Give the backbone structure.
Amino acid sequence: VSAATLGVTVLVLYLGVLFAIGAAAHRARRDDTPADHFLASRGLGLPVLFLTLYATAYSGNSLLGYPGEAYRRGFAFVMATGFMMAIVVVFHALVPRLRPLAVAHGFVTPGDWIRHRFGAEPGGTALRLGVALLMTVALGNFLLAQLVAMGHVAHQVTDGVVPYWAGVVGLAAVVLFYETVGGMRAVAWTDAAQGVLMLVGLLALLGWVLGDQGGLAATTRAVAALRPAAVAVPGPRECANWVSSIALLGLASVVYPQAIQRIYAARSATVLRRALAMMTFMPFATTLVVTLAGIAAIPRLEHLGGVEADTVVPRLLADWAATGPAFAVLAALVLLGALAAIMSTADSVLLSFGSVVAEDVFDWPREDPRTTQFGRRIAAGAMAALALLALSPQLTLWRLIELKMELLIQCVPAFLGAIHWRMVRARAACAGLVAGSALAAGAVLAGVPRLGGIHVGVLGLGVNLLVAVLGSLGEGARASSRE
Amino acid sequence: VSRAPGPWRRRTRAVLLALVGVLYGLSIPWYRSAAAEPRLVLGLPDWVAVAVGCYAAIACLNALAWLLTDVPDAPDEIDGAGR
């Protein structure tokens, strides 16, 4: 059996399973309300919640972008294991307070928290719109990265039979289908299946990374001989970037709309905290494995630069598959696992995109079934537009991740700040959001992604917090003097 | 009946999260000279092995902290959250 036939067969089988799950989820729906479509009527149990959190958190960025960055930077990218774990640590600051409010007040989108917290306070609507727009841009960026990754992997898994553009368009259509007919139920169920597939694929990849190259020590020695800087102790600038990356990813990821909506969708608080306890170990099974794979590629694949380094994993697997039929099957499994990771994130992002734009940007009511229809149409339009953009990728996957996080992190004061500090005022939080976003976006547009190794988004958050705190204190003082 | 966590649970959770913070500080090799020649430990450069060890400890402590975290199912069971 040729690699192409094998790849096409497993791809068709996999897509068939997704269609079946989408149809089953469609039959299981209770009604057409936004709470049922976007949150599966808040009924996700432990196995499904854990696997959907896992499959959503680890995406095409993780499986293709992280090895690419590890290939470019060497062992210093072990920081990725730390920052992925930081997400589950930072959730301690959000989940215990947000979850009970979400259950009591029937939150569906992140904007529902802003509405609840700031009510009719001056600046409340502007803050909700500002947060929603940043989330929309971040989700669009995230979806774009998944579409690019889908195209690469579909091309690779079928040994070139499916061209990049057809991978992007075809798989985008599949995701759109099951997300539209099955909503969160279809997304979570497919995520569960995709999460299992991803774990199996990654374990196979780990076995190969450790076995095929004579073990970890031999790989490290080979990397050190070819590129000593990849093994050297990081300098002060790299250490500053390490701290900044943990802050950027840890803080920004907890305000991912799809993560917040999973906090809302858990069947119970007990299920949620158990799922988060399990999630804390997953960077070892995922991020560390792909980081080591990227580093192991240094002695095998020379001189890949820029966007090209994002194809490190598919190239390694192509080498592996060429060594025998059994390895070809395993390589196809790993690629299918990568595709599962990408599609499981794309579907979650798409679902959140539709709900955030419909409810938080256009302010459609969360009890009205017409909001669900509107959200579906928005998701379809966004998917079509981003699929067109994905046909000519310009940035590395890691850079797309950083850009998204630098904007998303500006939402942190409106969530973590406002949930812990009663003094936060909507106008001040909104001014902080605008100041932080302007600094981060301005620096990126000026071609300055970092200052002294610190991401401009993290610096923007500093300004954002300062404006929000000083502005809130000022408003509080003015209100006291009027009384 | 209040489901508020007992003081020992709260204190233990706070200690665990503080240890997580310390381990994050240790995982970054800011205290090592960039000119130092790394030795291999478990097949990894020593500073990478330290980072991975710290992250393994963080995972265990954080999981324990989540099991000790009380996430109430109603807003009146927590104090001072939002409105």
Remarks:
- The beta strands of chain A are 450-451, 454-455.
